């Protein structure tokens, strides 16, 4: 039993060290309003956006390409960070020169459907 606990602690420490070895970008969550999104269906015209900024973004005056990511209908922008760890994936890809430093933008996709007087938000 003691060996199992020591092995689990060693694995946990290795995982944390492996994740921490890459420079970290910054994740910013903001809300944007657009008059064009106002509609009679009742959808909120203010949308949440999640933006990933590469590790060197704040120190640089360089322009970065932007990847606009539209997640699936059953997922969300915050789950891309919390569950998929997309920011860590981008950190690793940038640090190992698999991709150029870039900004990543993902918005929450919502849809309201009014059926027989009942408002359903998906």
From TrEMBL:
Gene3D superfamilies the UniProt entry points to: alpha/beta hydrolase (3.40.50.1820)
Signal peptide limits: 1-20
Keywords carried by this UniProt record: Hydrolase, Signal
Organism (species): Cyclobacterium jeungdonense
Gene Ontology molecular function: hydrolase activity
Protein's name according to its UniProt entry: Alpha/beta hydrolase-fold protein
């Amino acid at each position: 039993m003691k060996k199992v606990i020591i092995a689990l602690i060693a694995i946990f420490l290795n995982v944390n060290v492996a994740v921490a070895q890459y420079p970290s970008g910054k994740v910013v969550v903001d809300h944007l309003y657009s008059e064009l999104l106002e509609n009679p269906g009742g959808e909120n015209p203010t949308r949440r956006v999640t933006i990933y900024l590469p590790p060197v973004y704040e120190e640089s005056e360089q322009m970065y390409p932007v990847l606009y990511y539209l997640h699936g209908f059953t997922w969300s922008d915050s789950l891309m960070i919390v569950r998929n760890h997309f920011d860590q994936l981008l950190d690793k890809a940038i640090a190992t020169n698999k991709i150029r430093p870039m900004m990543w933008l993902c918005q929450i996709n919502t849809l309201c459907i009014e059926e027989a007087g009942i408002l359903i938000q998906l």
